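User: I've been going back and forth on whether these two constructs are worth ordering. Before I decide, could you fold them both?

Assistant: Sure. I'll take them in the order you sent them. The first construct and its structure tokens:
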Amino acid sequence: MRHLEEGPDGCEPHPRARALSGWFSQLAACDQQMVAECVRDAAHAAVFGFLCVLDGARVIDDPACRPSPDGDQPERRYPHARVQF
């Protein structure tokens, strides 16, 4: 949030960072508060989800990488996937 409120760091910040900071500074105070709440909610959800994975309560799984019941390997079922077994 600091980068949105105070502007990006550095002598030549990335143009996207400058644009976001400029957009944020032009918002009304109530809209800035809503953006801050969205950022907090997204950060909380990301950290909570990561901790759930570490705890084993949530699984990171790519169904395309699972072997099929007929024994077909994923790279044959999904030739665009670059999965190495």
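The second construct, handled the same way:
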Amino acid sequence: MTSAPSAGVHELIRTGGAQLVTTGEHVLELLAPIGERLVAVPRAEEQATDRLDTTARQVLDAVPITMPAETPSIARAAGLSTAVTLRVLGTLHQARIVERLDRGWIKVAARA
């Protein structure tokens, strides 16, 4: 951005006179008629946590990574009732996102 030799290239990209490509497929997409040879946008593999609703996300965010916590503590951190938190923890446990240990709940990924 501050390199003088790059100024011309940056200006071409900024004004639409050039395109950035990273694969041959991108080049073919640019050369093909509009709407043909469209390259799929790369996406990361879907994770079990990607489709959590807001309440489940609140509970998961309140579950510790290293030190297990009891349900009331997680409920307070999540700003939810203990009953709602316990129900959501059960759902997260079934999905293998959290684990119940003797001293409380912990995120599964932290133990991998």
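Notes on the second construct follow. The chain is about 40% helix and 5% strand. The longest strand covers residues 98-101.
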